[in-house]
Amino acid sequence: MQKGEFVYEGKAKRIYRTEQENVFWMEFKDDATAQNGLKRGTIGDKGIVNAEVTRRVFQYLQSHGIPTHLREQVGERDLLVDGLAMLKLEVVMRNVAAGSLVKRLGIEEGRTFAEGIVELYLKDDDLGDPLINDDHALALGLATAEEIAAVKALGRKVNSLLQAYFLAADLVLVDFKLEFGRRGNEIVLGDEVTPDTCRLWDRETRQKLDKDRFRQDLGGVEEAYQEVLRRLVASHA
Ligand code: UDP
User: Fold this and answer.
1) pLDDT for 94-116, tens place per residue?
2) Distance from Cα 101 to the centre of ligand 1, integer Å
3) Which of 39, 57, 102, 165 could form a disulfide with 193 if both were Cys (CB 3.0 to 4.6 A apart)?
4) What average pLDDT does the structure give for the chain?
5) Is the dihedral of CA 14, 18, 21, 26 positive or negative?
6) What is the whole-number distance in angstroms between the Cα of residue 21 and the centre of ligand 1?
7) pLDDT over 90 for what percent of the chain?
8) Is the C-beta atom of 99 inside 6 A of ligand 1?
9) Is 85-219 a CATH 3.30.470.20 domain?
C-alpha cells in the first residue's frame, strides 16, 4: 500500500489517502500540544511509540469484539485505517480522579471510583471541548439516541478490557479519551489509544507514565512513553 494524497494534519497525526477507496494512511507525529494548543513541543519518537501502542491496543480490543478502524501497521509510525464518518464527540472514561475532574468537582487526585465514569465532550477546539450530556449531544444532532447509547456502552466495555490489559503491565488506567465514527450502520472506535490520550500510573509507585509529564513539565517524558511500550510488549507477547 502506498501513501497517497495528503488529506489532513491534526495536532498529533497526519492523514493521507491510499490507492484504496476509503482506506487511509495515519502517520503519528512527535509533536505534542497541551492546554488546547497553548503549550507546544515535541516528544522524541512519540509517533513510533503511539503507532505501536495503538496497533497493539486496537488488535486486543478487536479480538474481544470491539469494532475498530485499524487495518494494519505499515511503518514504524504508520497505520492503515478505515475511513469513518467521525462523531463530533469525545468520550472520556474515568476510573481514578485526575485532570479536569479534580478541578471541576474539587476532589483529590487519586481517588478511585467503584465504577467507571463516562463523560461526553463536544469536539470543538474554539469552544475548548466543553463537557456535555446525552441531551446536549442529541439536541446538537451529534448522534442519534441509539448511537449515544452505543458509544457509552462501548466506552464502558473498552474501559473494562483496557483496565485489565494495562494492569497486566503494572499500569493503572486512570482515565482516557475515545473517539467513535460511523462505518455504514455500525459505530466503530477510531483515532488512537496512547499515552497522549490515557493517564497511566505505575501500579506500585503511582508514578505518572503519560502525557501529564509533558503537561506538567515533570521531565522524563520520552522515557515514560518508552516505558509504557516496553511494559506492553513484555506483558502481552
Ligand atoms: N484527553 C485527550 N484529549 C483531549 C482531552 C482529554 O486525549 O482533548 C484525555 C486525557 O489525556 C485524559 C482524559 O482524556 O487521559 C481526561 O482528560 P481531562 O478531562 O482530565 O482533561 P485534561 O486534564 O487532559 O485537560
Assistant:
1) 999 999 999 999 999 999 999 99
2) 10
3) 57
4) 98
5) negative
6) 32
7) 98
8) yes
9) yes
